[in-house]
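Subject: for your reference before the review

Hello V.,

The reviewers asked for a structural picture of the protein, and I figured it would be easier to keep everything in one thread rather than splitting it across files. Below is the amino acid sequence we used in the manuscript, unchanged from the supplementary table.
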Amino acid sequence: QVQLVESGGGLVRPGGSLRLSCAASGFTLGYYAIGWFRQAPGKEREGVSCITLSADSTYYADSVKGRFTISRDNAKNTVYLQLNSLKPEDTAVYYCAASIIRSSLRLRRLWDSDYDYWGQGTQVTVSS
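And here is what came back from the structure prediction:
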């Protein structure tokens, strides 16, 4: 059974950090580009970051550039998203997703329609 499981969310104060993990089971994560998305209450889901299957390219939404870092460890079948300098507006449910797309031109768009498998999400709350 193909499954993605996110972990690492929680409550953190503004300026704090979290590291989210996305673990795959039932398939080899190394064959897929992996994206992170988030959805805040009352808002549409938005793309946050993406990493190509070989990790040679990474892409970020402007709102998180310089604060978030995506990485992957294919040997552990896991992708990570390091969240630093967190702001209250980063509060959302964070999802990871897998895509078979290889095109950088497409992946950099961070469109959720380009992704095939999704996790259930992990809540990140930034509040004082």
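For the response letter, the relevant points are probably these. The chain has one helix and eleven strands. Residues 104-107 form the longest helix (4 residues).

Happy to draft the paragraph if you're swamped.

O.
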